[in-house]
Amino acid sequence: MRRFLIYLSGARPDILETTPTDLGKFEGVGGAVLITSTLALVSMTTVLSFALNLTLLLALPVAAFWALAVMSLDRWLVASIPSSGTQRWAMAAPRILMAILLGVVISTPLIMQVFRSEIDARLVTIKQRNAEAIVEEFRRGPIGQQISTLESEQAQLERTIETGGALDPNQDPQLRSLTAERKTEQAKADAYLTEWQCLLYSGKGCANSRTGDGPLVRVFQARYRSAADSVKATDDRIAARKKELATEDSATRTFRLNATMVSLQQVQARLTESTREQSRLQSASLAANQADDGLLIRLRALDEVSQGDIVLRTTQVLLFLLFMLIMCLPVTVRLLQRPGAYEKVLALAERSEYRAARDAYSGLRRERPDASAVLMSIEEIWARTPPDEATGHGREDDESEASTDSRAVALEHTRLSSMEEPSTRRPDPRDLFAEEDEY
């Protein structure tokens, strides 16, 4: 278990063997990473159970993969934060933001699990409210309006059949037009009468304060009488039309009765089809609403529950902060640690490994034939280069320069040949500290 915690902390076990005093520090960091990954496992299991209705056996593998991803990310976060330096917090800022984001994502499902009973109780109210909204929406929607129109037509046709084919006066187009015309004329007559009375007697609601008989009074009197005559004439036309409808012959009534029965059958068929379609869609929506138990509706329920209860809201905030603090624990612990012996030995080991890699690269150049060929080809290039006539130097100067360059190439070749092979053994910590003293 100790080795596993050290692995999670991102520390090098070979360096920790030389600094046993720092073992507890890095085991604590590894334990923090293990705690966050465990909470991630529980959180993802909860999300999959609510959102996808998966069983525990199906949710655990996916949740385990998520926990491993969180574990790897946390391990990288704690390992990438520098142990010291003036830019330590600046370099750690993006990692802190990532840790906070991870904490928010993981802590929310855990809070939902804590308040599960309160959320379940609120879900009943939310689903009932949604069901009422669904019914009202279908009633006012296109299908609902179509059903309302068909029901009105059906009632009108049934009244016509009940009267034996006699046309309902209230549904006669001509009679309805005359009724609307009479209403307009009656409004004009009432307005003229009011103005006439105000000019004669004034009173409440009248704009004028002076009264008396005069030309203007006679004008409004004439207008009122004309409007009243129009109303009386319209009343006579309405009475005549009603009498005409009442004295229709039996053949006309029989024809209208048969046509009404055919129309009633068509309207009833359309009404049945529309009602069936509305019931099907409404039942499907109500069933989906009743079966809704996902993550979004639970978040809404949690928000509604906490809005009216200050104690619940405070508890929710405190739990959220607690879980987020736990999820940020690895980065926080790593930032609060002070550099110890491990960091010093690690710096020396990295320096020694760099030197070994540099020496290995130099030895590789010495052992490869193409490296020696490059060195030897320099002399050939100088030997084939003709003297520079423009500068006036002779052959002797060129030979002197070539000889000097050849000696420099030979010295470089001798230095590369005399380099020691890189050591493959692990450096002794005492040697590392000795090298540190040299610096």
From TrEMBL:
InterPro entries: DUF4407
Protein name: DUF4407 domain-containing protein
Record keywords: Membrane, Transmembrane, Transmembrane helix
Recorded superkingdom: Bacteria
Region (Disordered): 385-439
Chain ranges passing through the membrane: 32-52, 58-77, 89-112, 317-336
Source species of the chain: Actinoallomurus iriomotensis
Biased composition regions of type Basic and acidic residues, renumbered to the chain: 386-396, 422-433
The keyword Calcium is assigned to this record: no
